[in-house]
């Protein structure tokens, strides 16, 4: 091959090499562009996801802060909560089926109601309330004159605590009216007595309290000593028919038979009005519900009792508050 032909072939090779370089460069540029586009897209998606999750996190934190702030707030009164005024008039408050309708029910002093709606007045009442309320575990709706309803301003947690100690005291009083208070019981013993009438036998229940002192200690955690009755320990070696308590083998036993002639129409339903919370004392009025004639209706079928079958007695309670301890120092028990 002469020099001319060799030069031609070398030029051809150079052209092919250059062409290949151009193709490779273009391919590399495409790769770089694709990589850059991919990186850009990933960055965009990353920013979007970051903003979304940051926003969600922010919303969650805000909600958590709201919950925390809500928990930190002092106990509030329930909105639209009221109760029936008493003053010197203890008659039942008429509940109607409309502001000009028929009387369908009656509410006692201090009965709690929820005010659903305010309505315009009529000739006999300047403003009416549509209310709902609970009575003997059933829900009712009706209309009452607003003049006889007072807004409930009491701290609901305080009222709950008052009711807690009242329930304990009323449970004590209920048991103590016909028998004696014993707390939770498990076993029982039969005790024989010798009387002028001959041999008699009575049942005594084993108390959760191991001694009369322990039972008294429990009662005095919510009730002052002057309100406690019938705490008398008797000698098991010389038993008498109406003995209240015996201590036998390290256990307390309580009389489980009733004195004759003691009956009560108290239904265990009551409503309260807290009137004073100053000087670490809580003063409240109580309306106790009674059945007038136990032969006509009783607690087991109280839903069938009409308002005329029931009556309400007004009492008073004074509770002393010492830190977290609430102790009743004065109370009119239902009888």
Task: Characterise this structure.
The chain has 335 residues and is an alpha+beta fold. The protein folds into four domains: 1-49; 81-151, SH3 Domains (SH3 type barrels, Roll), CATH 2.30.30; 154-179 and 264-335, no CATH class; 180-255, no CATH class. The chain is built from three helices and 15 strands. The strands form four sheets. The chain has a five-stranded antiparallel beta sheet, with no helix packed on it. It has a four-stranded antiparallel beta sheet with strand order 8-9-11-10, with no helix packed on it. The termini are far apart. Residues 51-77 have low confidence and may be disordered.
Question: How would the blueprint of this fold be written?
Answer:
Layout: H1 3-72, E1 81-84, E2 93-96, E3 103-107, E4 112-120, E5 127-135, E6 138-145, E7 149-151, H2 156-178, E8 185-195, E9 198-207, H3 212-219, E10 245-248, E11 251-255, E12 266-276, E13 281-291, E14 310-322, E15 325-331
Antiparallel strand pairs: 1-4, 1-7, 2-3, 4-5, 5-6, 8-9, 9-11, 10-11, 12-13, 13-14, 14-15
pLDDT below 50 for ≥5 consecutive residues: which ranges? 51-77
Global structural class: alpha+beta
The beta-strand count equals 15
Strand content: 25-35%
Oligomeric state of the chains in view: single chain
Mean pLDDT equals: 83
Our Rg estimate from Cα atoms comes to 41 Å
**Biggest sheet: strand arrangement:** 6-5-4-1-7
* SSE string, helices as H and strands as E: HEEEEEEEHEEHEEEEEE
User: Main β-sheet, in a few words?
Assistant: 5 strands, antiparallel
Indicate the percent of residues in helices: 25-40%
Q: Based on Cα principal axes, name the global outline.
A: extended
How many structural domains in the coordinates? 4
Number of helices: 3
- Measured between the Cα atoms of the first and last residue, the distance is 139 Å
């Amino acid at each position: 091959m002469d020099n001319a032909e060799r030069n031609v072939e070398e030029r051809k090779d150079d052209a092919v090499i250059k062409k290949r370089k151009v193709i490779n460069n273009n391919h590399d540029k495409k790769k770089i562009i694709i990589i850059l586009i991919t990186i850009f897209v990933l960055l965009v998606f990353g920013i979007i996801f970051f903003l979304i999750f940051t926003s969600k996190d922010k919303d969650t934190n805000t909600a958590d802060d709201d919950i925390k702030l809500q928990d930190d707030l002092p106990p509030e009164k329930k909105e639209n909560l009221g109760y029936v005024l008493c003053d010197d008039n203890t008659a039942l408050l008429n509940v109607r089926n409309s502001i000009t309708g028929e009387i369908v029910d009656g509410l006692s002093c201090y009965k709690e109601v929820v005010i659903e709606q305010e309505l315009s007045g009529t000739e006999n009442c300047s403003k009416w309330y549509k209310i709902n309320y609970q009575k003997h575990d059933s829900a009712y709706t009706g209309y009452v004159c607003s003049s006889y309803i007072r807004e409930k301003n009491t701290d609901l947690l305080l009222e709950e605590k008052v009711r807690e100690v009242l329930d304990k005291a009323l449970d004590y009083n209920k048991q103590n009216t016909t028998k004696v208070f014993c707390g939770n019981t498990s076993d029982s013993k039969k005790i024989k007595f010798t009387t002028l009438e001959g041999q008699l036998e009575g049942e005594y229940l084993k108390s959760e309290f191991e001694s009369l002192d322990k039972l008294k200690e429990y009662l005095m955690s919510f009730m002052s000593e002057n309100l406690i009755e019938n705490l008398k320990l008797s000698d098991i070696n010389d038993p008498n028919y109406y003995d209240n308590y015996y201590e036998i083998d390290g256990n307390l036993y309580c009389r489980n038979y009733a004195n004759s002639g003691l009956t009560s129409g108290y239904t265990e339903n009551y409503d309260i009005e807290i009137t004073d919370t100053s000087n670490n004392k809580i003063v409240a009025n109580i309306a106790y519900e009674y059945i007038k004639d136990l032969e006509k209706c009783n607690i087991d079928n109280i839903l069938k009792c009409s308002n005329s079958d029931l009556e309400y007695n007004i009492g008073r309670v004074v509770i002393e508050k010492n830190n977290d301890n609430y102790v009743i120092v004065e109370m009119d028990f239902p009888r």
